[in-house]
Amino acid sequence: MVNWTRRRFLQASAIAGGAMLLPGVMHSAWAAGSDKPELETVRVGFIPLTDCAPLVIAALKGFDKKYGITIVPTKEASWAAVRDKLVAGELDAAHILYGLLYGLELGIAGKPQPMANLMTLNHNGQAITLSNDLLDKGVRDLDGLKKLIQQQAPGTYSFAHTFPTGTHAMWLYYWLASAGINPFDDVRTVVVPPPQMVMNMRIGNMVGFCVGEPWNARAINDRIGFTAATSQSIWPEHPEKILGTRRDWVEKNPHTARALVSAVMEAARWIDASPENKRETALILSRRAWLNTKEQYLTGRMLGEYDNGIGQRWQDAHPIRFFNDGAVSYPWHSDGMWFLTQFRRWGLLKTEPDYAGIAQRINQTAVWQDAATAVGGIGTPSSPMRSSTLMDGTVWNGTDPEGYASRFAIHRQGA
User: What residue range is the signal peptide (predicted)?
Assistant: First the structure.
């Protein structure tokens, strides 16, 4: 048992420094009787992106069978399709954008639905790509982009993200605004499904996009764009995709929910265990059934080896992570609350929401805890809040969310 002094230190550390984990407590295996999953088969939707990896590996490596279920991954064409099938019950759960799930709960990404975030699937691993047309105009970074935009009429240039309340929209808006570019007044934004990003840039429908991998690496390979920023340069160790479902599904199938999270969590641990496992994962994902692309587009960035396409190479300090001793998968309340602050900033929420209450009812920390116990060897965070410092020096730790939302000089009129 952790003594009181040490417990207070760990709790303070989790809030001030983020993500300190207490040692996990091993328990006996779950019984096959009263704890048996209610469902034998679980249909899980995914979009062909690198960060669907834990779901794919859980199904292919048999981690699902270990917990008494069979995961059936189903490839979807767009985030809107994932949303519609999840709400309609055609999918039991899905690889889904963090902000999409929260938008659904609040009725700003579709008809209001009680949703559940079972776990975070990954941190980091997205990017903003700018076109070579901009490069030809002398744009190599955000400052160059700002100068060019200031020389043109508002809305001259178009940028794409993947869903109005999604993570990519929030990364793109935050990045542009950090340089004084208003993403609603100074440029146009459009929604494009991830697999269609490269094609749309090729034919000139936009000069920039924010999306997950491998589509940023693909743009470089096809010589139509370069990486101007990674999402982890905007927010190191940011939450990205989550394992989402409907709250009534969790209530009806609590043991299935635990088994699903356990299988995916164990798969995530396997992926992050070694570079060899990551290379094998990249090879698997490249196949037709999954991403249907070349392995070379996946492997480098999965290993944190970056080339921006215009001469800069680096080993990223915050590569895509799927496990990180369990800290990735934990559904931190403060992560969900951050998206709510950005919804407020950009006028998607007209009144102050119950930040903490919404995060508490969506993020299923109790399910995560049961799954972590079943998997074993995973520590439990001492607080559902963590602290992060973003690219502009702002610190987010879940305290005073409304004050945080209103502190930004650039916001959408009426927010």
Answer: 1-31
For residue 150, with 0-12 CB atoms within 10 Å meaning exposed, 13-18 middle and 19 or more buried, which class applies? exposed
Give 17's pLDDT tier (boundaries 50, 70, 90).
Answer: very low
Percentage of residues of the chain with pLDDT beyond 90: 90
The answer on pLDDT for 215 being more than 60 is yes
Secondary structure (3-state) at 226? strand
Provide mean pLDDT across the span 56-75.
Answer: 98
Residue 107 C-beta-side C-alpha neighbours within 13 Å:
5
- Distance CA(216)–CA(227), nearest Å, equals 7
3-state secondary structure of 15: helix
Segment (H or E) for 21: strand 21-22
Q: For the chain, first and last CA: distance in Å?
A: 47
Residue carrying the six token digits 């009534």: 248
User: Contact at 8 Å (CB) between 248 and 261?
Assistant: no
d(CA 141, CA 348): 28
pLDDT band at 34 (very low <50, low <70, confident <90, very high): confident
Residue-level pLDDT at 32: 57
Q: Give the residue ranges of DSSP H helices in 19-131.
A: 53-60, 63-66, 79-88, 98-106
pLDDT in tens, 145-173: 999 999 999 999 999 999 999 999 999 99
Q: How far apart are CA 291 and CA 297, in angstroms?
A: 10
DSSP state string for 302-330 = HTTEEE-SSS-EEE-SS--BS-TTTTTTS
Say how far apart CA 298 and CA 300 lie, in whole Å: 6
* Cβ-contact 259, 37 below 8 angstroms: yes
Position 414, amino acid: G
Question: How far lies 164's CA from each of 210, 265, 348, in Å?
Answer: 12, 28, 9
**How far are the Cα atoms of 116, 118, 303, 331, 386 from residue 247, in angstroms, in the given order?**
5, 10, 35, 15, 24
Q: Which pLDDT score is estimated for 14?
A: 37
DSSP string, 237-278: T-B-EEEEEEHHHHHH-HHHHHHHHHHHHHHHHHHHT-HHHH
pTM for this structure? 0.92
CA atoms within 13 A on the CB side of 118: 33
Q: Express each pLDDT in 247-297 by its tens digit.
A: 999 999 999 999 999 999 999 999 999 999 999 999 999 999 999 999 999
